[in-house]
Amino acid sequence: MNPLSLETPGKINLFLEVKGKRADSWHELLTLFYPVRGLTDQVEIRFGGTGIRIRCSLPGVPLNEDNLAAKAALAFFAAAGEPCPGMEITLEKRLPAAGGMAGGSSNAGAVLRLLQQYSGNALPAEKLAEVALSLGSDVPYFLDPVPAVGRGRGEILTPVELPDDLPLLLVPGSFPISAAWAYAHWKDVPQTKSADLDDLLPLLAAKNYTEAGKLLRNDLEPAALHKFPLLRKLTELLRSSGGSPLMSGSGPTLFALYPDAAARDRAFNRCKDEIEKNQVSLIKP
């Protein structure tokens, strides 16, 4: 059969409040996921042969069943009660690894969606969501990557209507920060933002980005900025260009929200060269 393929976006967290550690050792979250469709990975599955083979040109990506995409395939067919067919999964990676944009989770979600297509929807929606959560807290989001409020571990999702063209600049992470480190140290530096998601959502929906920028929040950010001087420097460069900067997820990817597209474009032209002196890229997603 012809290969199945899917473009799958990364995400940023426009809001991430850590409410505390739960009895099951996970953290209780309140977050706002936003898909970045201008920066995507391509996932392709070709069926045949034996076992699961991973192809990816990005250094450091596991090319065996340790890859989350392979785990997703195994978990899907285990849940369906069917033997896993041989397949080759090709990952064309543009999303940073361990960069706060959930690239691995995005790939795993894409594999689950493609296998649902291949199998004729072998799993009910609730079961598919369970399989996704077993792979990671962000994977359920990528079963339907639209703007959404996430609760619980982030897997209890409520879609929200937001503009699909937020005036953003993005600095994809150029070095990894593990989520385990971020959550272990999030209390090390006092929080300075007490913004409320209920106040942020209507401002974004109304495209009042100047006021919305004041309410962006990520409780994982202060410790990361304290530990990594480069993140502090890049944050200040984005702020000096008129943006409201924030780290996404566990970092180190940064983004900035601007009052409008014209302000975003001026900022891009103004600070692109200065930011790229630090061996990182600046993009308009």
Topology (SSEs and partners):
Blueprint: E1 4-21, E2 27-47, E3 52-56, H1 68-80, E4 87-92, H2 103-119, H3 125-135, E5 148-152, E6 156-159, E7 168-171, H4 179-184, H5 197-205, H6 209-213, E8 217-218, H7 221-227, H8 229-240, E9 244-247, E10 254-257, H9 261-276
Parallel strand pairs: 1-8, 3-4
Antiparallel strand pairs: 1-2, 2-4, 2-5, 5-6, 7-10, 9-10
Helix pairs in contact: 1-2, 1-3, 7-8
Can you describe this structure?
34% of the residues lie in helices and 26% in strands. The chain has 285 residues and is of the alpha+beta class. It folds into 2 domains: 4-159, 2-Layer Sandwich (Ribosomal Protein S5, domain 2), CATH 3.30.230.10; 168-276, GHMP kinase, C-terminal domain (Alpha-Beta Plaits, 2-Layer Sandwich). The strands form 2 sheets. Strands 1, 2, 3, 4, 5, 6 and 8 form a 7-stranded mixed sheet that branches. It has a 3-stranded antiparallel sheet with strand order 7-10-9. Strand 5 (148-152) and strand 6 form a beta hairpin. The longest helix has 17 residues, at 103-119. The relative contact order is 0.16. The model has no long low-confidence stretch (mean pLDDT 95).
